[in-house]
Amino acid sequence: MKAKVWDPFVRVFHWTLAAGFAANALVTNPEKDLHHLIGYGIAALLGLRVLWGLMGPRYARFSSFPPDPAAAMGQMADVVTGRRRVHLGHTPLGALMIYNLLLTLLVVVGSGHAMTTLAFWGIRWVKELHEVAVTWAEISVAVHVVAVIWESRRTGVNLPRAMVTGYKEVPDEALTAE
Amino acid sequence: MTTRSLIATLALALALGATGARAEDEASVEPAKEAQIRDMFVKQGYEVRSVGTEDGKIEVYAVKDGKLYEIYLDENLKVLESEED
């Protein structure tokens, strides 16, 4: 079965955000304009994603992937017991990772902007907040990447490819859930 | 990919993330020297926000007349560079 789940905005958002974060975390000089420009670009992406979460198509909406600890535990149980149940939209654990990353990146861009303002220029805790949030985001991205590989193998659905093409290709024998 | 190699990948990714994060050292300047630096800039009309080190140089964040400055000093407190942001 082939299901259209990710609209073009969601896909472009995902990969642009990934590229922007990688560039600023690993390459650009934090004191130079390019770092700041990419940071504001990420802020704009986050703002658009929030709007899209409120008014976008079905699988892009926050209402289709609310934070749900019980469902997340259910997915963990699937992992442990080897039950193959495919979620068409974001999986419950995936949803938690999305909220974690959105909130963490909001802290990163907010503190990063603050560091350039008269009020917070040179204030040490703001710089430390920025750095701690970036480190947390880096750890989260590492966990996200490994989890996506893991879940792709477990469920037989190639998740990275779905984020490129927009379609989840679900094996016929798999159980499907929302 | 086997489970074992996946776990190895995770460990490696975490290690890279953690170490790649903040490679720069931020050794603090000894208190007496920091006080001397603060005093020096306050006398010139700056509000000193923080004193630290970057790339082996002393780095001072300061504000003067609503403008933002990042000033680098050598060990002898000689100004090497003063950037206005």
Tell me what you see in this structure.
The complex is a heterodimer of chains A (about 180) and B (about 80). Chain A is mainly alpha-helical and about 180 residues long. Chain A has six helices and four strands. Chain A has one domain: Fumarate Reductase Cytochrome B subunit. Chain A has helices spanning about 10-25, 35-55, 70-80, 90-115, 125-155, 160-165; strands at about 1-5, 85, 165-170, 175. In chain A, helix 2 (about 35-55) crosses helix 4 (about 90-115) and helix 4 packs antiparallel against helix 5 (about 125-155). With about 80 residues, chain B is of the alpha+beta class. Chain B has one domain. Helix content of chain B is about 40%, strand content about 35%. In chain B, strands 1-2-3-4 form a four-stranded antiparallel beta sheet, covered by helices on one side. The interface between A and B is medium-sized, with 22 and 23 residues.
Give the helix/strand layout.
The complex is a heterodimer of chains A (178) and B (85).
Chain A: E1 2-4, H1 8-27, H2 33-55, H3 69-81, E2 85-87, H4 92-114, H5 124-155, H6 159-165, E3 167-169, E4 175-177
Chain B: H1 3-21, H2 31-43, E1 47-54, E2 57-64, E3 67-73, E4 79-84
Antiparallel strand pairs in B: 1-2, 2-3, 3-4
Summarize the model shown:
Chain A has 178 residues and is mostly helical. In chain A, 66% of the residues lie in helices and 7% in strands. Chain B is of the alpha+beta class and 85 residues long.
The order of strands across the largest sheet of chain A is 1-3
Q: Number of DSSP helices of chain B?
A: 2
Number of domains of chain A: 1
Q: Provide the spatial order of strands within the biggest beta sheet of chain B.
A: 1-2-3-4
Task: Estimate nothing, just give the exact number of structural domains of chain B.
Answer: 1
Give the DSSP E fraction of chain B (strand runs of 2 or more residues): 25-35%
**SSE sequence of chain B, one letter per element:** HHEEEE
- What's the CATH superfamily of chain A, by name? Transmembrane di-heme cytochromes, Chain C
Amino- and carboxy-terminal Cα gap of chain A: 14 Å
Radius of gyration of chain B in whole Å, from Cα? 20 Å
Q: Which percent band covers the strand fraction of chain A?
A: 5-15%
Biggest interface, CB < 8 A = A-B, 22 and 23 residues
The description of the largest β-sheet of chain B is: 4 strands, antiparallel
Secondary-structure element order of chain A, N to C: EHHHEHHHEE
Radius of gyration of chain A: 18 Å
Provide the helix percentage of chain B: 25-40%
For the record, the CATH architecture of chain A stands as Up-down Bundle
Silhouette of chain B: elongated
Number of strands of chain B: 4
The main sheet of chain A comes to: 2 strands, antiparallel
